[in-house]
Structures
1.
Amino acid sequence: MLQLWSQAVQSPTKTLFESRWRAFKRAYRQPMYKDLLQYIEEEWLQEDTRKFFLAYYTNTYPHFGQISTSRVESAHRRLKKDLESSQSEPIRVVTLINSIIEAQYTKAQHQHADNTLRPPPRYRHLLFKDIVTKVSTYAMQKVIETMNFYLPERLDKPIKRCTGSYKRSLGLPCIHQIQEALHDNRSLGLEEFHDQWLLVPRSRLLAHPQRPYIYPPPKKQQKGRPRGALNQPKKSTKQDLSEFEHTNQLVENGGEAGVEVLRRSKRLQSSAAQRKE
Ligand SMILES: [Zn+2]
């Protein structure tokens, strides 16, 4: 079942998808699958939801270099493992897929919160001074990779004239822009990153250019241990709260797709529970 389903999902064209989906329905036309097919059609294959996962849709968007993601592959591995060890009842397949989507969504939210609050030390480079906490660490990592690949310049890896194609396809600063910033001893700017890589909408960043987007509010009086003390206690509950609030804010502002997934998944779980009763 999973194989037929993923073949359909991976279809590069709409026509191919439609015919594979018909094949899927033919293969599972017995009455016991009726509810499952209905669920997939009503919840996942509507015009507004199918574009989040059917390949012929997702391929039409700029991919920003994420053609194959290990995240998807590891989810797929987990799915296969879980399915092999179960009897693969239809409802279980769907519940499993849902729980994986949900877990990935939560993980993405946490990563986002982490990026804005605690950028790892390797991004404390002059190049990132103005963009850290505003641009994803994934994007900064790409900049580091580009830099390490070309610099120091070598005869076997010459830096050719700038065609702008790297920046156009990836939405990231190319080696020429990186070189320029290094030469001028300055940070890369937000304008060198596509909206895709920003952690908050550009309009909001531009409204507060001087301030990093999210930092805990300044404390009036620092009591007890000095800043930077090595034996810091674990995170304060205050920090947790702001992270939580931030996540909520994300859900409210930008994460419609994810919220939709969560909503559907909750609904499915409750219908699964009913079925068991
Ligand atoms: Zn260039």
2.
Amino acid sequence: MRCYANDLCLQTCEEERRQDIVCGMQRRERILQNSTFFLLSSNTMKVIEHIQNAKGTQISFEILPPLKGKTINSIYEHLDPMMEFKPSFINVTYHRSETMFKKKPDGTFEKVEVRKRPGTVGICAAIMNHYRVDAVPHLICGGFTRRETEDALIDLHFLGVDNVLVLRGDAAKNESSFEPEADGHHYAIDLLKQVVHLNNGIYIEEDIKNGGKTNFCIGVAGYPEKHFESPNISTDLNFLKAKVDAGAEYITTQMFFDNQKYFDFVKACKGIGINVPIIPGLKPITSKKQLSILPKIFHVDIPADLSDAIIKCRNDEEVEKVGTEWLTQQSKELKKAEVPVLHYYTLGKPKVICNVVKEIV
Ligand SMILES: Cc1cc2nc3c(=O)[nH]c(=O)nc-3n(C[C@H](O)[C@H](O)[C@H](O)COP(=O)(O)OP(=O)(O)OC[C@H]3O[C@@H](n4cnc5c(N)ncnc54)[C@H](O)[C@@H]3O)c2cc1C
């Protein structure tokens, strides 16, 4: 006589065995993936190593995380066309949350904190895993307490990300000037010092003795046309030097459209003893409205030759042509001057960047 209880038991055992096998396979796959990632991460290079090992000018790109609701595929679609140029590294910007007032059904308003572009850390890990290219997350003071910063750095370290660009961040939209979090950092240099501490195994928790050391290569921002809050270029440069003296290994500049501004900046930096590589940040102008938006947001000048040519354009297609040609000439001249890296702010314009870079590689 067949025993259903036994059959059931056998079926259950068989099912459990199958599940064990599947779980085992999944586990092995995970271990394999992790070890691949470990191999990847152990092969990663710091920005400063890319620069020191390079024979000539390198290429790098900067991207923004996509708006919340989009998938990682939007990043791959953006980056795919540019990967043929073998960037040495890819920067991913960080965006703090914004305070918004959302209307409730009863007509009253609710105050909410919304981060429109989350995902910087995840995108960096995805880039390193997917393209095997080093990623440089931006880390800001705004919106972070020192403990949250420490946790973010630990996440990056565990993921094998050994590069960070440390920044103060701008004031929140509802503030007239930059306000740090209670127990947050006021200036980029304070954040930088925290990263240096962690590189030496010094954590905020004082009872952590012999803490694991992180290994971050730290970059900072520099402004060829001075930071807009600074009273003059000389004061701004002294604060920049303080960041370098505190451990910054390279500087990435704000965008500029006149190479002479960059050359003068590099000379002035050298003049006060800043001897780290200075990476020029570059952006194409692709629409007429950027003529007023870029100076307003980024506090940069647009040379008269360029603005005159753009004003004459009949549509943005023509502006894009002018902007591409301008950026190509800028890039060629900078490459000739043997800058360490040409760093492109891609801001949703991969095609333009490809058209520029293919002229100079
Ligand atoms: C390459 C690059 C990438 C960027 N990426 C991002 C990003 O991903 N996310 C984002 O939100 N923003 C980003 N920004 C914008 C940046 O956050 C703003 O420009 C911000 O206003 C200043 O940041 P900082 O790191 O230069 O600040 P800081 O170096 O702290 O300088 C800010 C101002 O304070 C002055 N200063 C510095 N130290 C002191 C001090 N000890 N005492 C008094 N004054 C001082 C400086 O002269 C300057 O005027 C980026 C900018 C650049 C150039």
